[in-house]
Amino acid sequence: MKKLLLCLLFTAFYVSPTLHAETTLSEENKPKFTGQNYSGEYLCNRKNLTVGDYEVIVQLRLNKFNSYNKFGVYDFITETENNMVYLGQAVADGNRLALTFNLKEAKIAEFNTGIGEFKKIGNRRWAFQNRYYEPDDTGGNYGYENCTMKTAFLPATKNKSTIKK
After folding, report:
1. pLDDT at 14
2. What is the rounded distance in angstroms from the CA atom of residue 67 to the CA atom of residue 36?
3. What is the rounded CA–CA span in Å between residue 53 and residue 61?
4. What percentage of the chain exceeds 90 in pLDDT?
5. Confidence band (pLDDT; 50, 70, 90) for 89?
6. Secondary structure of residue 149 in the 3-state scheme
7. CB 89, CB 110: distance < 8 Å
8. 76: helix, coil or strand?
């Protein structure tokens, strides 16, 4: 019985951390980001039960350090017509999008959540619809956004004049 107990303890303390280390992503073994980059500024037409129809500007910026394979991690900023700012994060898995954000000036951490899907609308332009939920004192507010990229995202290119011949 003591041998069985020692064997189990050995397995728990020495084998388990080794297995866990192999399955966690580190900078050395993390696969490169190969997904679509949805970074850009989007004009969103919104509608919710409380406010009705209105427009907002959404900015998505790819966080390259934390993105891998087709899983993209984004910084998310929304600014409303009356200059209210929402900050948060978004993740894209292929063309599916999940969001979490809250009001920048909020004194309590009530996070809004959303889910959406990207569709290509041009050579380098994207659109997505986001369905979201905002908690409040009366049971919450539901809404949606139809967002269209304002201008095509152009990846940085090397300046040809700085290349040595």
Report:
1. 42
2. 11
3. 26
4. 40
5. very high
6. strand
7. no
8. strand
The total of other beta-carbon atoms located within 10 Å of residue 151's CB is 9
Question: Encoding tokens for residue 13?
Answer: 């303390």
Helical (H) or strand (E) element with 112: strand 112-120
Question: pLDDT, tens digit, for every residue of 131-160?
Answer: 988 877 667 788 888 999 997 655 554 444
How much is the pLDDT for 86? 85
Tell me the helix, strand and coil percentages in the chain, rounded to 5.
15, 45, 40
pLDDT band at 18 (very low <50, low <70, confident <90, very high): very low
Quick one: which of 152, 145, 156 has its CA closest to 58?
145
Q: Domains of the chain by range and CATH?
A: 40-149 (2.40.128)
Please state, in angstroms and rounded to a whole number, the distance separating the CA atoms of residues 104 and 94. Answer: 28
d(CA 69, CA 130): 23
Quick check: 164 pLDDT over 60? no
Cα 81 to Cα 54: distance, rounded to the nearest angstrom: 8
Angle CA 142–110–89, to nearest 5? 85
